[in-house]
Amino acid sequence: MKLASRLSLVAVVATGIVAFGATARAHSGRADGQGAPPPEADAQASAPGMAHHDHHHGAMALHMKWTALREESPEDRARAEALLATLRASIEKYKDWRVALDEGYKPFHPELPLEEYHFTNYARGAWAAFDFDPAKPTSLLYKRTDGGWELTGAMYTAPKRFTEDQLDERVPLSVARWHAHINICAPREHPALADWTKFGPAGSIASPEACDAAGGRWIPQLFGWMVHIYPYETDADNIWPR
Would you state the pLDDT for residue 159? Predict the structure, then answer.
């Protein structure tokens, strides 16, 4: 599939997330992410693929794949702790969300009422396809507050082509589990008209045969690999959700 066509499919699914979320929750906040957003009326949003939630349950589980959890070694733990220290120090300045905006991090659909928001630096995301710098995460993770945004964590990314051994070189698979969004059926009609209970990264369609029968476009994997890290948590299981 040509690059332009792939980007078009990604755009359709992303627009569908907006349509799904707008239908599920009425929200009157600013969409540009430049001003202080209003407080959350309901943090538990159901828009697919955007909130920090348990991916193992419901239709979402049909569209997720995870790296296998490996046996932890002392070297893995030391490597993870070093990465965590680097990450904490490097993102400290982004507790002021205005600094994040100034340095190229852009909020992904801040108009939706979500539990968690990704502020993504697309240049860093592109660089992550070739090299890994734990001080330069692809995305910063925020939640809304009465006065703006509260930094909660960060997300690293890696290309689809990466093996689990390559992912382990970046973040130990005995400590954290990378995930990817898979088996996506994108609708051919306008996103506002699509049935997002069937289509998209939280829809019921999870096979190419069912997608073809529904008249959709099949996307085996939507993005590359991702891993979320929450360095301000105190429990290890919450720092490295898996």
Answer: 97
